Amino acid sequence: LRLDMTLIFVLAFTVITRLWALHAPSQAVWDEVHFGRFAGEYIRGRFFFDLHPPLGKLIFAAVAWLGGQKTAFTMSKIGDAYDGSTVPYLLMRLVSASCGIAIVLVIYLLLRGLGCSRWTCNLGAWLIAVDNASCILSRLIILDAQLVLACLITITACVWMTRFPRFSRSWLLCLLLSGLGLGITTSIKLVGLGAVGIVGLITLHDLGQRLQEVLHKPTRATVQRWLADFALRSICLVALPLAIYVGTFALHLALLPRSGTGDAFFSKPFQASLDGNIHNLPLDGPPQLANGSVVSLRSLHGSSAWLHSHAHRYPVYPNGTDGLVSSHQQQVTAFSFTNDYNSLWRLELVRQGEFSLAAKPLISTPSDLPQLLYHGDLIRLVHVATGLPLHTHDVAAPLTPTLQEVSCFAPGDHRVPPGQVGHQPKMDIWRIDVTDTTEPEVLALRSALRFVHANTSAALLISGQNLPSWGFFQLEVAATRDINQVSTLAWTWVADHHVHDQLPKASKEHVPEISFWGKLVELHQVMYEAQSRLSKQAHAYSSPPLIWPLVFQGISFWQHPENNQQIYLLGNPLVWWLLSVGHATQCVPTLALVVDLESRREFRARILFTHTAFFRRLAWGVGVLGAGWLILYLPFVLMERQLFLHSYWPALCLRQVLGPRKKANTHTH
């Protein structure tokens, strides 16, 4: 390709708009919260679940690791500051920005492959460069820029392949690049399956034409060449993409060997393959909990931490603006050190008649055994070291005022919330719920448990915040009355280190092993089910696909809390509207020409004979881009769930170059 000064100008403009002040804002923007967290999970090796294939997230994780990130991504919501963290967010954004710059160059090459003039190619590249939406989506830690670049490279390589002689070095290189592109595109997002459809149409068209030539003059040599062509395409366009796709999942699973936030979505055999999962830990005591069981309670929220208490009290401190003070009762925290005597709790069953809510009939237990515990039983959690019961009340937690304080209550405690007088012994009763199965047994290491306070209906949880020095920097334990406002794992507990002298030891539970292929199938089943469960309700920034080309509604990605600066995703109205009008106006005369030619058969033959090259170029260029746009766009029209404007970007890129391609053909004619 000769030096094109206009293209250099377009690329320079693109570099400036994609890289200028890339560090701003130094806060988490939109889905950076999710993809940054996924990168941190790869670095820590903790299993997670996401709707999309893993390659794009693996790329971000690799860049984060090379940039020095060694810990978790701590930004939990839009607007959380990167300042002071170890997250190399600038390098991670640079991945997307580099892809955004490359997209403009690939658009130019795609139009050249379709036979367009340099003027037309530069126009197509310029339309992408000046598009606001393309610019914004190329500056964030999200998958869209990677997806669009891989998709366009795939289509471009396939188009250029049709320009070279079969089996030439250039033809083989383009074929290989097409296969690599297909594997990479589908491994980033399943929207990349649209590229499979586009490449499939081009391949079928090309193979069909060559098959007609073979059938017209069948010889042994022509048949062998066609079969060799078919075999090479099968290897490069089917086997190679599948190998890449499966390989990314193999790498994904290899990098996430430890139990994490994604465990609960999967079967017991899948979970048992993860280090530290409750189904992968050996039972060191009786399998089922009973009245009098002594256990340690491990939270599934983040890194391992056990429910803990010690002979230190909450300090007397002002608690917000409501005038309340702390209870000054014994601290309850979560401690990351295992085998600590202060982390042992005895479960005492509340009998019928002792408490008004304990009217549920108990499931019978053999007379020679202590009463076994079942889902819904009422219990006390008694701290073994101090003998005090776990307690919560209407006092704000020390660090999170919206949560209730959790403490251990002694009969002599006199500091109680205003309006409460003396000791209230019934405030130490909890309901034990089994949340991960319909089976009622409360099992050590196997059951996911929730403890709900009988009087206030507040669930015991870890807030995720570290207490100051008076709490020895251990994790805050509190209780919430609204479990829907916190992560499920925050209030999920597992009983381990179970001891009970009157119960028999457990025999080893047999959990079937699961192969890599079994994991791969289950992963895709869960991905499909999660996609089908996505909300169908309208969102403030969701929009129906039919209005996407008209850019009537955008998405607010980020807003400064003080000066109302915003990052708002919106396409360039001038470009989008002109393309919509242009496509509509060009469809009418094209249709009229076809009707006119059909009505005048004798004139049609002369027109087609005289302008055969023009019609072939028109059908080829517009057909590839138009079909590609429809393949990438129409599936969203058929979906019944929340959809957002950014999903239109892959189809938009083909639509934006479809206009220049039509114009080029019109000028040629």
Word description of this protein:
The chain is an alpha+beta fold. It has two domains: 5-254 and 538-668, no CATH class; 284-499, Trefoil (Acidic Fibroblast Growth Factor, subunit A), CATH 2.80.10.50. Helix content is 43%, strand content 13%. It is built from 16 helices and 14 strands. The strands form two sheets. Strands 1, 2, 3, 4, 5, 6, 7, 8, 9, 10, 11 and 12 form a twelve-stranded antiparallel β-sheet that branches. A two-stranded antiparallel sheet has the order 13-14. A hairpin with a 6-residue loop joins strand 13 and strand 14. Helix 1 packs antiparallel against helix 4 (89-113), helix 7 (144-161) packs antiparallel against helix 8 (169-188) and helix 7 (144-161) runs parallel beside helix 9 (193-216). The protein starts with a helix and ends with a helix. The relative contact order is 0.11. Residues 319-324, 416-423, 588-598, 602-612 and 662-669 have low confidence and may be disordered.
The radius of gyration over CA amounts to 32 Å
Can you write the helix and strand succession as a string? HHHHHHHHHHHEEEEEEEEEEEEHEEHHHH
**Structural class, from helix and strand content?**
alpha+beta
Distance between the termini: 25 Å
The average pLDDT value, as a whole number, equals 80
Strand content: 5-15%
Kindly state the number of beta strands: 14
Described by its quaternary structure, the protein is single chain
Transmembrane segments: 90-111, 147-164, 171-204, 230-256, 574-597, 618-638
Subcellular location: Endoplasmic reticulum membrane
Family: Belongs to the glycosyltransferase 39 family.
GO molecular function: dolichyl-phosphate-mannose-protein mannosyltransferase activity
